[in-house]
Amino acid sequence: MKMLDQPLVVSGQLAWLGGDRLERRVEHPGNEVSTIADGEVTQQRDGHEVRRFSLKRAPQLQLLLDSFVALLGGDPTRLEQAFTIRRDAVDATRWSLILTPRDPRLAQAVSQVQIDGRGNEPRCMRMQEADGDLTIDLLGELAARMPPAPTREALATLCAGG
Amino acid sequence: MRSTRRLFLLLAWLGGLATLGAFVATRLRISTDLRSFMPAPTTPDQRLLMEQVGEGPGSRLLLLAITGRDEAQAAGLSQHLVASLRGDARYTQVLNGSFDLASLDAALLPYRYLLSPTLDQNRLDAAFLRDQLQQRLDDLSSPAATLLKPLLPRDPTLEVLQLAQRWMPARSPEVRDGVWFSDRGEALLVVQTRAAGFDPDAQGLAIDGIRHAFDALPDHAGAHLVVSGPGYFSVVANAQTRGQAEWIGRISSIGFVLLLLLAYRSVGSLLLSALPIATAALAGIAMLVACFPQVHGITLAFGFTLLGVAQEYPIRVLSHRRAGEDAVQSVRDLWPLLFTAILSASIAYLAFYASGVNGLRQLAVFTVTGLLAAGFSTRYALPYLLPLRVRDVADMAWLHAARRWADALPRPRWIPLAVAIATVMMLAGAQAPFWQNDLSALTPLPQDLLLRDARLREALGAPDVRYLLIVEAPTEQGVLALSERWEPAIEQLVATHAVDAIEWPSRYLPSEGVQRARQQALPDRPTLEQALQEAGQGLPFKPGLFAPFVDDVQRARALPLLTPERFAASPLGQRLAAMLVQRDGRWLGLGTLSGVHDMAAVERFARDSQGQVRLLDLKVAAESLVVDYRARILRALLVATALLVLTVTLALRSLRRAWHVLAPMTLATFLVLAVERVAGVEVSLFHLVALILAAGLGLHYALFFERDIGDAAERRRTLHATLVCVASALLVFGMLAWSSIPVLRAIGLTVSLGVAFHFCLSILMAPHARQD
Fold first, then answer.
1. Which of A2, A4, A111 should one mutate to test binding to chain B, selecting the residue with the greatest count of B CBs within 10 A?
2. Alpha helices, DSSP H only, in chain A?
3. Burial class (CB in 10 A: 0-12, 13-18, 19+), A40
4. Contacts of residue B138 in chain A, CB cutoff 8 Å?
5. Do A60 and B143 touch (CB under 8 A)?
6. CA distances from B313 to A115, B283, B331, B658 (A)
7. What is the DSSP pairing of strand A94-101 with strand A83-89?
8. Exposed/middle/buried for B497, CB within 10 Å: 0-12, 13-18, 19+?
9. A83-89: strand order across its sheet
10. What's the pLDDT tens digit per position in B576-627?
11. Is the pLDDT at B567 greater than 60, yes or no?
């Protein structure tokens, strides 16, 4: 992240609650639960007031929702609607999807989403923000392999199939 | 040579009318602000009411609801509509639930440290900043990151969000897709217009602007926009009244022309008799233009109605022409009586002038000028134009029969007494209340519009237009300081759910004292940089990241304190400006209430503040205003009556003869009142105005019947003239009585009844008949 001189690492759980609802639960550091439901984001943190804002104001989350729900729900049309898709097969089992948001407003915030997977399981999600910041989500068993002091390069290798 | 002179006179008259018309057309400026038809306020509460009715924050709010094919479309339209209305000078505020940081002007951003209460409890020291930076770090890894990232370097303590929260309407509807939604799936918006709420024309423009903006949006097909609020109501009421008055006017004009053709069988006479009326109308308007900067639309509408009396003058001249007699001679014979009639009608209408209400004063100037113009042109111009040979109406066969029948009516002396007793009994027996004090009872709004407004108001938490909380001080700053002082109590009222929300001036702008204290608590550059460095230790923020923050704090230290004037440049400042009112060298702060659940608690709070916070019930103030208004009109009527008695007595040179004229008129007036009361009508100001008009007409009937002398043919002519007058008045006002609009119905019904009663009583109480 441009503002920071080292990457920010958090871990927790991401859960699809069905429909357009997603729950993001951070367990380390600190506890925080964010829920996306009905176009609104609710963010709750220990010892603080609940913060609510519109999904429209958080394009990152909108894309997370779009891609995740489509992926988990196995809904290729939805994915098609939100993104132009490039599909690369790395080898027999490993694949990666490169998604470019169709909505110009969203594209202004997030230029590209890359999802790497193996078999029928997504393992890694990279979100390239337009301002240069990069968010990398390591999913499933890969999450346990997060290095203590990660660098972009190390994580990219990890995603690519280390 | 006579025909050349006639032609010349006709051309001169028409030329004169054209000149007047041109003068009027260039100079006439019509106002539609309904307040000039409300009485002049006398108490402070009433004055505040008058200002608030038109310009208060509540009355300028328009509530909008968008129904779309689905919620996503409605939400999108809501966002786009806001974008296209913001920046339009007609609207001071456009809200749809998505708080836009743009509503805090960029130039005002450094003021956030003076406006936000953060510095009341905290200092920008290392400990506070450390806690804040830690939180921001958590934020960056949270879904809110994209939202907050742009703010961070300039505003690490998120004061902007603090203010946003403070300024969001306290009780707002459910937010879906980022905008307000009602539980029926409509996207809701609130628009505050610059125009006063009770100026239907300006409100009409504002509402058209919204509709055009909506229709210009892409993807609005299948969606529907609903508008509500006081301004919208004034537009609807205005359009409805105008619409009905127009079609009723058209029908009755056609009827009137047919009636005159039937009565005189001469197109020439008909056209010529229109000249005095045209003269009356143009002279009246010209006088208004000369005396007042703006003429009220209602003055003109009522004025033309009241000028109906003037139609009698040419009718009398036409009916009283004898076969072969020179028109000039017959007018000369008629003139003393006609002049008395004109004078007394003018005196009755002058009563409006004494009311002290601007609109009614205009009405008086217009009608009195009009009556005099019609009278004098009937006397000095019309007769020279009338055709030489006319049919004497006295020879009509049906008129002979009618006169015989009228003369044969029994006229027992006890009639006046019996009518008087019946009137008193009816008045005494009618159900209370006698007076209609509620102005809104006369606003012709369909019930479903009102229900929809209540529903939207409830959903939006829009302020109740009825109640205001008021703080008063010699200066603006005094008002803000007082407002600050009572803010905790106000918050308490909301916390205990006595009221859903209260808009309160100091929520938007702290007083200079508080701003100064906060300003003095801001650290200087080295201190802040030092604290920031300490706070950032061990946190991954890049060095120098918060330079914009340090700059802003330094700027805030040197800022001149934010005054309401300086603040007024921004949309939020406009919201505040609507809450601060200057009057008679003192300042008032106005708090509006939304969703009142426990009025008693609010009253208790106002009482306990020992007069520092006053609760104003606008409905009570409005009713007291109407009562005052009525008292003025009644007093003016009393004076007019005295003058009338004097004029008629002097003109007839006999108290006994004056009695024969005034008694039927007075009795008939009270009889109308009694019949309406028994029918359950509550008497409003419009009924009073209509009673005066009817009395003016009745006075004419009585004057002419009283004059009836031995000459049988002349008496037939009198009956003819009176019948034509009565028929035309019944035609015009009878049509109005069918209107669905209470105001028009009140006037139509009262005048029709009045004309009928005046006619019957003046013919039954005419003196000569008993001498037969």
1. A4
2. 59-73, 76-82, 104-109, 152-161
3. middle
4. 29-30, 32, 45
5. yes
6. 94, 16, 10, 21
7. antiparallel
8. exposed
9. A83-89, A94-101, A110-118, A121-129, A134-138
10. 887 888 877 888 888 888 888 888 998 899 888 888 888 888 778 778 877 8
11. yes
Cis peptide before B433 (omega within 30 of 0): yes
d(CA A7, CA A4): 7
User: Helix (H, G, I), strand (E, B), or coil: what is residue A27?
Assistant: strand
Q: How far apart are CA B136 and CA B156, in angstroms?
A: 7
Q: Record the tokens describing residue B587, joined without a space.
A: 């300042």
> How sure is the predictor about B753, in pLDDT bands with cuts at 50, 70 and 90?
very high
Q: In the block, which residue shows the tokens 């703080």?
A: B471
- Cα dihedral across residues B403, B267, B370, B669: positive or negative: positive
Peptide bond into A29 cis (omega under 30): yes
Residues of chain A neighbouring B141 (CB-CB closer than 8 A)? 8-10, 26
Whether residue B144 lies within 8 A of chain A, CB to CB, comes out as: yes
User: Tokens standing for B549?
Assistant: 């923050």
Phi then psi dihedrals of residue B749, to 5 deg: -65, -45
**Cβ–Cβ under 8 Å, residues A108 and B150:** no
Cβ–Cβ gap A8/B137 under 8 Å: yes
Q: Are A61 and B143 a contacting pair at CB < 8 A? A: yes
Question: pLDDT tens across A26-52, in order?
Answer: 877 778 888 887 777 888 887 777 777
Task: Tell me whether B149 touches chain A (CB under 8 Å).
Answer: yes
3-state secondary structure of A25: strand
The secondary structure of B105-137 as a DSSP string is: -GGGGGGHHHHSTHHHH--SSHHHHHHHHHHHH
Backbone angles phi, psi at B127, to 5 degrees: -65, -45
Nearest to B473 by CA among B611, B592, B617, B615: B611
> Could you report the per-residue pLDDT of B724-746, keeping only the tens digit for each?
889 988 887 888 888 777 777 88
CB contact under 8 A, A54 and B153: no
- Report if pTM > 0.90: no
Quick one: DSSP state of residue B218? T
Q: What number of helices (H) and strands (E) belong to chain B?
A: 34, 13
Residue B170, min C-alpha distance to chain A (Å): 15
**Residues of B in Cβ contact (< 8 Å) with A59:** 146
Predicted ipTM of the assembly: 0.83
Average pLDDT over residues B390-406: 82
CA distance B173 to B78: 14
Which residue of chain B has the CA closest to A61?
B143
Distances (CA, A) of B152 to A134, B104, B537: 18, 17, 17
Nearest residue, CB atoms, B175 vs list A1, A4, A54: A54
DSSP character at residue A48:
S
Residue type, position B255, single letter:
G
On average, the pLDDT of chain B sits at 84
- B146 and A52 in contact by Cβ < 8 A? no
Local structure of A110: helix, strand or coil: strand
Query: What number of C-beta contacts closer than 8 Å exist between A and B?
Result: 84
pLDDT for res B172: 64
Question: What stretches in chain A show pLDDT beneath 70?
Answer: 1, 54, 56-57, 59, 161-162
CA A24 to chain centre: 10
* Phi and psi angles of residue B709, each rounded to the nearest 5 degrees, phi first: -105, -170
Residue among A54, A44, A46, A50 at smallest CA distance from A24: A44
Give the nearest partner residue to B144 out of A5, A58, A133, using CB atoms.
A58
Percentage of chain B beyond pLDDT 90 is 17
